[in-house]
Amino acid sequence: MEKDVLDRIRRLSQQYAYTSIQMHEAVARKAGLSGTDHKYLGFLIQKGQMTAGELSTLTGLTTGAVTGLIDRFEKRNLVKRQFAADDRRKIIIVPNTAIIMALLTPLYKEFRARSEKLIGSFSDEEVETLEAYFSQAIEIMTQTTNTLNENQAKP
């Protein structure tokens, strides 16, 4: 592939990432959250209930930072802590999906409608290409993240 094509795609990809961050920050502010708290809340919605340790591993946050995150969410009734049935020392973080969705869904309504219209304008073949790109790009980013996290753990 020609260098100018790669450069164009790289610039578009970077602009997409930057614009996504800006949009999600705006949504978070409107919801009364920080941008990172908003995204971590998304992890809980996507993955479901988990321990604080699992959330720490998923986010890369320290356990102390996760405790603060959970405290902030709990104050807003976005999550609740519950003891694990098999080990009362273990705390499970349970997202309050109904409240989270009531908070965030209206803020994404216009974006979602316009995105669906855009995707609907593509042919089946173009949609397959988009799916292939995003799936493979996610895999590359996941592998890069895992490698960086492994290297960080080494002295």
Describe this structure in words.
With 155 residues, this protein is mainly alpha-helical. The chain contains 6 helices and 3 strands. A 3-stranded antiparallel β-sheet has the order 1-3-2. Helix 1 (3-31) packs across helix 2 (35-47) and helix 3 crosses helix 4 (63-75). The longest helix has 30 residues, at 124-153. The chain is globular and about 60 Å long. The relative contact order is 0.07. The model has no long low-confidence stretch (mean pLDDT 92).
Core attributes:
mainly alpha; 6 helices; 75% helix; three-stranded antiparallel β-sheet; 155 residues; single chain; globular
Helix count from the secondary structure assignment: 6
**Which strand order do you get reading across the main beta sheet?**
1-3-2
> Helical amount among residues, as a percent range?
over 70%
Question: Strand fraction band?
Answer: 5-15%
Structural class: mainly alpha
**N- and C-termini, Cα separation:** 39 Å
Instruction: Tell me the series of helices and strands, N- to C-terminal.
Output: HHEHHEEHH
Radius of gyration: 19 Å
Shape: globular
- Biggest sheet descriptor: 3 strands, antiparallel
Overall pLDDT: 92
Strand tally is 3
Runs in which pLDDT lies below 50 for 5 or more consecutive residues are: none
